[in-house]
Amino acid sequence: MEQRGPPLPVPADADAQVDPVQRLAGEVLPGIGRELGGDVPALALALGFDMPAAAGTSLVVIAINSAAALAARLGGQASLDWPLIAVFTAAALAGVLPGNRVASRVDASRLTTALTVLLIAVAAYSLARSLSGLA
After folding, report:
1. How many CB atoms lie within 10 A of CB 51?
2. pLDDT digits (tens, 9 = 90+) for 59-98
3. Terminus-to-terminus CA distance in the chain, angstroms?
4. Cys-Cys with 43: which of 25, 54, 68, 81 at CB 3.0–4.6 Å?
């Protein structure tokens, strides 16, 4: 994964400060979900959630994970790029209304298919970049 932005300061004993349960919940489980193609398709296809419930559940997990990461960063006196955070927050909020309109007008199976195609395209792109980096 590429480093974006300046590195955050990490205390020398950072690994000793992280509870193994926190590490599992905050790093390992989300990482597994990303490697398996995302949690929305997993919830929809493997566990039988309908698409709105899968997306909503995914968003709740993302919000909890983000809030926990922000709290940890603020507790560690890290400096955050608040203008950049504001831009991404505004963009996310700007996408809510049109996204809701599209989701309410398109059949859930089509949304699932579109998400599957998108994930396959991203995986193919990632594979191509990885293979080109090996050569």
Report:
1. 20
2. 888 888 888 888 887 877 777 788 998 999 899 889 988 8
3. 18
4. 54
